[in-house]
User: Which sequence fits this backbone?
């Protein structure tokens, strides 16, 4: 008996389909996903440890201030550029092979770092390290959304959010531990043991998906040639602008024009290309547009709030990273509990993630408002309440923001949104660096001038305002009048600097509070509600009622 299907044209018998490279969800998939998560954290530690420990590295490798900024900017420029274009490459080479290769490269590139003979070779190596590190976060987002079952994908988003909340806050304590107990070389080599563990977990647990070499025939080379130099130029401007006095420097002017023109051309090219790296049309979706803007703002806010206590304790009290470490640990360690708890809460269908986001922003705004009361007498423990509010605020903002950006998209849109989200995440860190540098210089200059002007116009202010510090400084000096005058000026200069730094950081806290209130209003108006994905229903029974043939059947004799 033959069963004839009504097809418009006869179809030849197809070969048996290849088995799916997405196995049933189980312990191996969990181990593989956790291996990718560990690799991403290793990349983040490598970034933040070397940034926080730059003074120690510069002292050991004889780097000046300018060389130190190039040390940071070359890493970040290629790190962010890699985030933008990685999704195309891991789809082509396969997630499994690409992740193993990049994780191994990240570890091996750390070996020669302490022995680089000059600044140029060191910066080239840092560029390669940034390239490897930037490839991992987009892979993590795809792995969490692709290999986890629908009802667990919000927990995958929580795992990805750890790279924005847990990792950056743990960089300072790790730097203090490594430099103080193992040696400065381990500021680079911390990747070695952790990458080895991550490689073992990935090799055993991550599904072995196929490669698609045929994609090279349709490679978007114009977009690649336009995008990579434009992104690296923009990041370089953000890191070196303050050092070179922005547009007073020909280098900044040329890089700004070059990067800006290429980036506009890149966006225009991506709009019309049939296989873009970015789907620019996503910005027409209210949820995606608002969530991407919120993500950038949140990461800038978190970056600024992390820098303020570190700068205050270093500049005003002269503390080292090991003394500042508890301030960062207060935020970092509870994230291991708060992130999954927040993800579980947002995974409830009755919970509107927009309200969770608004409450998280309110926590951050409250923390920043409390910070406006900073004064020179504050010590480490005075920041504990501010940091405690961030424990709740950061996961309550980042997880709902990522939900709004990803929950309404289909599987085919994953690589398109992954590159965009991660590039903006990297640019937010560079933007926070530039904003903090500009605010620190401009507001400190302003407050220094105001304080000196006040002293100059009222001779009675000096004894009442700074008499005690100067008297304390003079008490340790000798009877020489010239030495006493010099000591008085030094003490007075230090006191004005201390007051100006404190007032500047209070201004930054106030700006953060205003930004948080603005983002609360933005997310109350723009995004529509999204729901967490539900478990996939079980497949229908194999036996079908008579007279209802399946469309999957093929002619049989």
Assistant:
């Amino acid at each position: 008996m033959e069963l004839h299907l009504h097809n418009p044209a006869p179809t030849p018998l197809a070969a048996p389909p290849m088995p799916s490279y997405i196995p049933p969800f189980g312990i191996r998939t969990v181990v593989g996903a956790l291996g990718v998560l560990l690799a991403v954290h290793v990349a983040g530690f490598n970034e933040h440890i070397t940034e926080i420990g730059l003074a120690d590295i510069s002292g050991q490798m004889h780097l000046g201030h300018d060389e130190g900024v190039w040390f940071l900017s070359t890493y970040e420029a290629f790190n962010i550029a890699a985030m933008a274009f990685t999704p195309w490459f891991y789809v082509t080479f396969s997630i499994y092979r690409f992740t193993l290769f990049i994780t191994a490269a990240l570890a091996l590139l750390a070996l020669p770092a302490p022995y680089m003979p000059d600044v140029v070779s060191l910066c080239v190596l840092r560029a390669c390290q940034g390239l490897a590190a930037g490839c991992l976060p987009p892979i993590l987002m795809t792995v969490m959304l692709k290999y986890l079952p629908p009802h667990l994908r919000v927990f995958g988003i929580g795992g990805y959010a750890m790279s924005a909340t847990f990792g950056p806050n743990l960089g300072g304590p790790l730097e203090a531990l490594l430099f103080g107990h193992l040696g400065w070389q381990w500021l680079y080599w911390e990747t070695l043991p952790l990458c080895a563990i991550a490689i073992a977990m990935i090799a055993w647990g991550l599904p072995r998906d196929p490669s698609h070499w045929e994609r090279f025939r349709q490679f978007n080379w114009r977009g690649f040639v336009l995008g990579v130099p434009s992104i690296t130029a923009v990041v370089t401007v953000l890191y070196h602008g303050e050092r070179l006095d922005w547009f007073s420097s020909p280098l900044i002017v040329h890089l700004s024009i070059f990067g800006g023109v290429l980036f506009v051309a890149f966006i225009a090219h991506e709009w019309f290309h049939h296989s873009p790296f970015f789907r620019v049309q996503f910005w027409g979706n209210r949820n995606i547009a608002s969530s991407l803007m919120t993500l950038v703002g949140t990461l800038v806010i978190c970056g600024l709030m992390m820098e303020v206590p570190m700068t205050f304790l270093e500049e005003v009290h002269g503390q080292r990273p090991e003394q500042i470490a508890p301030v960062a640990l207060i935020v970092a360690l509870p994230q291991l509990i708060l992130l999954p708890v927040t993800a579980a809460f947002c995974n409830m269908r009755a919970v509107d993630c927009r309200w969770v986001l608004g409450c998280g922003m309110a926590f951050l705004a409250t923390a920043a408002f409390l910070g406006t009361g900073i004064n020179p007498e504050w010590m480490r423990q005075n920041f504990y309440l501010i940091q405690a509010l961030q424990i709740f605020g950061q996961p309550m903002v980042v997880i709902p923001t990522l939900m709004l950006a990803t929950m309404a998209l289909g599987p085919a849109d994953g690589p398109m949104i992954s590159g965009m989200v991660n590039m903006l995440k990297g640019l937010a860190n560079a933007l926070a660096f530039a904003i903090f540098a500009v605010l620190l210089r401009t507001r400190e200059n302003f407050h220094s001038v105001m304080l000196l002007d006040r002293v100059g116009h009222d001779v009675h202010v000096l004894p009442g305002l700074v008499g005690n510090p100067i008297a304390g400084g003079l008490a340790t000096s000798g009877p020489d009048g010239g030495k006493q005058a010099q000591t008085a000026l030094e003490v007075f200069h230090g006191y004005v600097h201390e007051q100006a730094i404190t007032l500047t950081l209070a201004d930054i806290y106030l700006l953060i509070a205003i930004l948080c209130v603005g983002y609360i209003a933005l997310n109350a108006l723009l995004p529509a509600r999204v729901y967490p994905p539900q478990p996939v229903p079980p497949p229908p029974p194999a036996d079908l009622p008579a007279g209802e043939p399946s469309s999957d059947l093929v002619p049989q004799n």
